[in-house]
Amino acid sequence: MERLQKVLAHAGVASRRQSEQLIASGHVKVNGQVVTELGVKVGLHDEIAVDNIPIAAEEPIYILLNKPRGVVSTANDEKGRKTVLDCIEGVSQRIYPVGRLDYDTSGLLLLTNDGQLANELTHPKYGVEKDYVAKVEGIPSNDDMKALRQGVVVEGKQTAPAKAKLRSSDKEKKTAIVSLTLHEGRNHQVKNMLAAVGHPVVKLTREKYAFLTLAGVQSGDFRRLNPKEVQELKRIVAPKK
């Protein structure tokens, strides 16, 4: 027997917190009866429906995608643009991205139907690290790099300290390659931080998510995470004893 909100999350309906809200607001039925109590447990033979639509207890799946530029990080796009789901073939489960990468940003993106893990990985309290590499206009000074490491003010709010490194510079073209490691997840954060120190981003890639890298995965390709990798992700966000 499992708690109802956990079953909904594992079925990809929503995160566990969102599933709790669905239950409390009367959107969920178990065996034809509306359930609003969060402590209810259900088994394999119970029929569960959300807004009168039955859910299927899908096998959890975890995918690492090397997202190309020019692809949106949503399940569907009202403008008809290519989505990250268009890059995934041979997967019958309903999956969705863990967080997002901008339309013109490439790199490592996770997709899953495990709503609980997706919610935990994106929650700021767990501080999951993400590594980015940016090509920027101009060549950052030592003071610029120090500011990035200490945190800069973006939209009136100080960013958390970050790891920052100047990888290379091209004095002739007046550009540089900068790496940043963040554990926050604000919208356009890397671009906004680099713009704040006077170096707008020309090109941006996410190279690493926690311990996962793009090794062996070409742009536009994907692979399934193995059980050991999934367990390590869950360990990262597990409550500390």
TrEMBL record:
UniProt keyword annotation of DNA damage present: no
CDD domains membership: PseudoU_synth_RsuA_like, S4
InterPro entries reported in the protein's UniProt record: PsdUridine_s_RsuA/RluB/E/F_cat, PsdUridine_synth_cat_dom_sf, PsdUridine_synth_RsuA/RluA, PsdUridine_synth_RsuA/RluB/E/F, PsdUridine_synth_RsuA/RluB_CS, RsuA_PseudoU_synthase, S4_RNA-bd, S4_RNA-bd_sf
Enzyme type, top EC level: isomerase
Name of the protein this chain belongs to: Pseudouridine synthase
GO cellular component: cytosol
Protein family membership: Belongs to the pseudouridine synthase RsuA family.
UniProt cross-references to NCBIfam families, sorted A to Z: pseudouridine synthase (TIGR00093)
Organism per entry: Levilactobacillus bambusae
Gene Ontology BP, a term: enzyme-directed rRNA pseudouridine synthesis
